[in-house]
UniProtKB/TrEMBL annotation:
Belongs to the UPF0098 family. CDD domains: PEBP_bact_arch. It comes from Phytoactinopolyspora mesophila. This is YbhB/YbcL family Raf kinase inhibitor-like protein. NCBIfam families: YbhB/YbcL family Raf kinase inhibitor-like protein (TIGR00481). PANTHER family: PEBP (PHOSPHATIDYLETHANOLAMINE-BINDING PROTEIN) FAMILY PROTEIN, UNCHARACTERIZED PROTEIN YBCL-RELATED.
Amino acid sequence: MALNIKDLKITSPDIGPDARLDDRHAKDRENTPPVLRISGVPDGTAELALVCHDPDAPLPWGFTHWTLYGIPADTKELGSDADIQFRPGPNNFGAEGYGGPRPPAGHGPHRYYFWVYALSRSVEGAPSLREFLDDYGDAIIEQNRVVGIYER
C-alpha cells in the first residue's frame, strides 16, 4: 500500500507549532495529556493508533511516553480521558497510558512527537512502540504528527 501524506491531520489547542508544552502535561506535574484533534482520516482506515515519542531522550531508541490503540476511525478528538476511552499500551516509564514529559534536568529542550496512524487493520492487544511498528508497519495507510517542546 502506498503511503499517503496529504490528508490525515493532527492538531492541538494545547500545542502551538513547535511550542513549549504547558507544565500541566509534565509527568511530575498534573500528567494530563494534551487535547488532540484528528481530521482527514483516509478511506479504508480500520482503526487509529497514537504514539507520543521523545527522540531527544539520551537512550538508543529515544523514550516512548504514550501508546494508545483501539481508536475508532471516526474519532475527532482525544481528550484527557483518552486512556479510559481507548486501549492504552506500554510507555517507557514501565506503566500503561500517558506519561508526560520528564526530560533530565539541564538536558535542554526535548521534542515530543504526537503521532497519529491510520491503519488498514486493527491492532491486537497493546504492543510496545517497537512491536507496533514491527507488526503493523505494513498496515499504516497514513501518519502525521504534532510536536511540542518541553525542558526542565
